[in-house]
Amino acid sequence: LVNLVRNEPARRLTHSPGREHDVSWSKDGKSLYYIANADGADRVHRLTLDDGVGRVVWSAPGAASCPRPSPDGAWVAFWLDGDWGGLYVCRTDGSAPRRLTHAPGARSWPYGGGAILWAPDSSRLVYGVRRPGNSVNLWTISLNGDDAMNLTALAAGHWLPVFAPNGRYLL
To answer: What does the alpha-carbon distance between residue 7 and residue 41 come to, in Å, rounded to a whole number?
Structure first.
């Protein structure tokens, strides 16, 4: 962590063995979500800056990637690979996990899944899906997972979506 205002040297936040990557801030700035593989598998972790402790949020089989906390702070979305692969959500404490889309082998770019973006009101997710020919289409889905819809059915690369502040438009 680097304090840009005070021009301080970088400070290490974690001290676990293995790789740590795919970091995302919570909207309130009090927690970080990241992937760590201290036990040999990529797991979703949450580090609270108050106590500096990293805790496992998701530890089921399969390697996770791209953890993205919801704006309301209630959920975290992520890709999971393997036979049970797809786009998952769970509460930020790891409870109430569910798979929203089934995509065996899906992970973050370049493996299959793409960007994950929450709607400003935390009601929906927008995510990229890689298709044959390396095109990436953007899809949207609600938290109940029953209304997936392709937003960009084009042979192009759409992998960095951005919502307008009011949530009505997507670029």
So the answer is: 35
Whole-angstrom distance, CA of residue 19 vs CA of residue 39:
10
Q: Which residue has the tokens 């899944």?
A: 113
Distance in angstroms (rounded) separating the CA atoms of residues 88 and 57? 12
Q: Is the pLDDT at 110 greater than 60, yes or no? A: no
Neighbouring CB atoms inside 10 A of 23's CB total 13
Q: Are strands 75-80 and 86-91 parallel, antiparallel or unpaired?
A: antiparallel
**Residue indicated by tokens 């005070």:** 6
Tokens, residue 35: 């992937």
> Do 50 and 39 touch, CB atoms closer than 8 A?
no
With a CB cutoff of 8 Å and minimum separation 6, the contacts of 28 are 73
3-state DSSP call for residue 163?
A: strand
In one letter, which amino acid is 89?
V
- For residue range 42-66, list pLDDT tens digits in order: 999 999 988 888 899 988 778 898 8
Model pTM greater than 0.85?
A: yes
What tokens appear for 24 in the block?
């995302």
Rounded to whole angstroms, the Cα distance separating 156 from 60 reads 33
Distance CA 46, CA 32 (A): 6
